Fold each of these.
Amino acid sequence: STTTAATPLRKNRQVQLSAEELRLRVYDHVRLHSPKAYIRLHTSVGEINMELFPHAAPMTCENFITHCSRGYYNNTLFHRSIKNFMIQGGDPRGDGTGGESIWGEPFEDEVYDKRLTHEGRGVVAMANSGPKTNGSQFYMTYKSCKHLDGKHTIFGKVVGGLETLIKMERLKTDDGDRPLEPVRLHKTEVFADPYVAAEEAVQAQLRKERGEVDEAEQERSRLAQEEFDTKANWFSNPLSGFTTPTAHKSGPGKYIKTDSGSVLDNPPKRRKAA
């Protein structure tokens, strides 16, 4: 499970957490504070901006953000596209049979938030080959596909570049749903990573529980959170094209509203979005 009940810790006790315990504490912090995360995909068809939902799928978002930060998806192909359904990528092999998580093994589904559904164009979710088989592959919907609710972890949405999705959907494919004109993900950019600030906050709390807090450590925690907030605020504003906003842009804004559509055909089987 990705949740845990935190054991009360006494001040001045030498608190030492395992890597797994620390990660679960970070997830608890992310769920509590509901930060946003933002990713930009640079593809051969155009650019796409994503808003991720760490509070709803902390493990999935950490996996995706870390892959993006490390360049794991760079120069990979979107190997499967089905009109009126979705486009799938994230496999370094480029054929739908590869890809792994940042932990080197499959991880569980995070389908707890029933408010997240496959409604409309631009839903971002994990492709899998059954329960608890998540690795690196993901998909973006062209239309609503509610039959996938509860089967695949929804961890984000497209908030910029819907025209790019439209271009992708119009591309011709072969009998195996592979685009005849290769759709390549050149690189990814991480604009706001909440896990950096969350881990620093957890580490600061652990230092406090050990009675080791000093002003310098508090300042590091504050600066880490401030850096994240600055990036998150400007990226959450509707963008005009994909030019990086200037420094004077700040404050919360309205997100781009996604389209809605109809329920569509079931996809073929393998590691897939069905």
Amino acid sequence: MYVQIRTKLVRFWSYIQQAAIRIGDDILEVKGTSDPEDVDTHYWFNFEYNGAMTTVGGFPVTITKPCFAKRKFEIDLSSKYPDQKIIIMTYKEFVEVDFENATEESFGNAVGMLGDFNSGETLARDGSTVLHHFTELGQEWQVLPSEHMLFHDVAEPQFPKKCTEPENPRGARRRRLAEATIGEEEAEAACESLKDALDRKDCVYDILATQDLDMVGAY
């Protein structure tokens, strides 16, 4: 199994714009949309836009629409790994990939940006160097020419060009505060109904970064 993400930079932060997963010989690629009038579901199955799809790599897949701006792709791994799923969720133009109930049996040997399964250490490609800076980690795991790209199209930058780095968030703080129309109190009020403390924290950050109170809907 291989998973690749493609991010979009917005000044000092970025988000996952597209995600692609390969299981066996099948590739599923998913993308959100920023168009509020767009009611379609955007995916490619084996490079065919909205191609007929019932399984990915032999595992059942379902597509649901929990709400107008959200799409949920669920790959059920239960036939081999009980109660485990891979979920790709889109909310507006934002994409999330989640490995539900992952175990060491199924993902213990995984490598990449998520780090070591057991320790959580964010390791370099050599499997031993620990990278503490997330920008450095992203550069380290940029898709190489020797690795099969899973997306249906090519987007810059491609190796050996480095990934574009964000602005310094500290240096841009004064300008952001001057431009902001939604403050921290409003963001916290919008997210207060979320039960999980980490979700609330992420929700507040997302609202402040995007200046969009509707981002609470992503949770």
